[in-house]
Design brief:
This protein has helices at 30-39, 55-67, 97-111, 130-141, 155-168, 199-208, 218-221, 237-241, 246-262, 266-274, 293-303, 308-316, and strands at 5-8, 13-16, 18-21, 44-47, 74-78, 83-85, 90-92, 118-122, 148-151, 173-178, 211-215, 281-286. By secondary structure, the chain is α/β, with parallel strands linked by helices. It has an eight-stranded parallel sheet. Strands 1-2 form a two-stranded antiparallel sheet. The protein has a two-stranded antiparallel ribbon with strand order 6-7. It is globular, with a radius of gyration of 19 Å.
Length: 319
């Protein structure tokens, strides 16, 4: 079955509820994965900014131009990610207007496109954000980007940035990107500086009408609770330990019960829950994953609409 399309009011368009995330680390199956994603009806691509992701951008742009798909697809990129200074063994802060312009120019060049549908960046809470928003406003005015997104900003900073962007740019924040939206409850976030998707974030998402782009690998869903997670989910001990809460054991049993009723795996039930929030959610799935059995589970979960009773019983474990 084709992927479900959902309306995203903050972006003024419909998008597939699974957003693909190409990776330069698996370049050999990049094109086959894009072909499969398009066959399924996917039309949203996430390109992150960590680890020198140049091949994923260049190969994605080549593929889009070859088939004339650019206008059909929504392209989201991460900008202003920290660099690393090997000499001093320290990160280089790039939360600046200069980095905004540099990264957007580089993304446009690598993708071979005239515009990006949305760019997002992490916060630096100790720094003022006005110059960064001003730079993003200049990029919108020039037509090089069309919408703004944030990742790892607190609720108050999101409100402040949204208000400022409305005033100086003429449009506010459209989307929040997160690794922290999951059915299982974690004891701490993926990385210490990441902002949990708690009630304050949920409140601001609903208040401002934001879309949420949620990473949905086994390492962000807590699939290790079921002992069948992929290798990445157990790459770091703290990534496993953060899900080891007593309530999650009871929740796991309920997930399996619901899965048995619908003929779905636990992974698919988690995906169904994630995509059935009161705000628009796109699940970011690794592009190569689409060619695996896990990808099939994600697709099946993305098609399922859980009953109100199912959702209520699952959410009761999160209180």
């Amino acid at each position: 079955m084709p992927l479900r399309q959902i309306d995203v009011p903050s972006l003024g368009r419909s998008l597939s509820n699974l957003m693909s995330a190409p990776s330069s680390s698996e370049a050999d199956i990049h094109e086959a994965s894009l072909d499969e994603y398009h066959r399924l009806g996917g039309n949203a691509i996430h390109l992150h900014g960590e680890g020198g992701e140049t091949h994923s951008r260049r190969a994605t742009g080549d593929w889009l131009r070859r088939y004339g798909f650019r206008d059909e697809f929504f392209i989201c990129t991460q900008i202003c990610h920290d660099d690393w200074d090997d000499a001093t063994r320290q990160s280089i802060d790039r939360f600046s207007s200069e980095a905004v312009h540099q990264d957007i120019s580089m993304d446009l060049q690598l993708l071979g496109t005239d515009y990006l549908d949305l760019v997002y960046l992490d916060d630096r809470p100790a720094l003022r954000f006005e110059a960064v928003i001003d730079a993003l406003g200049q990029e919108i005015a020039s037509g090089r980007i069309r919408a703004l997104g944030l990742r790892n900003w607190t609720a108050d900073r999101i409100r402040d940035a949204h208000s400022y962007a409305l005033k100086v740019v003429g449009q506010g924040i459209a989307a929040l990107v997160t690794t922290e939206l999951s059915l299982f409850v974690s004891a701490w976030p993926l990385w210490p500086e990441y902002v949990p998707f708690d009630s304050t974030i949920k409140e601001v998402v609903n208040e401002l009408g934001l879309a949420v782009f949620a990473h949905t690998g086994d390492y962000t869903l807590g699939q290790c609770v079921f002992k069948d997670a992929d290798a990445l989910a157990s790459m770091r001990p703290e990534w496993v330990e953060r899900w080891q809460l007593p309530a999650n054991a009871d929740l796991a049993q309920r997930i399996q019960e619901i899965g048995a009723v619908h003929g779905l795996t636990s992974r698919a039930v988690q995906m169904a829950w994630l995509l059935d929030q009161e705000f628009p959610v796109l699940a970011i799935v690794g592009l190569p994953t689409l060619l695996t059995d896990i990808g099939v589970e994600c697709q099946r979960g993305s098609q399922l609409k859980l009953t109100n009773s199912d959702m209520l019983s699952l959410n009761n474990y999160r209180i």
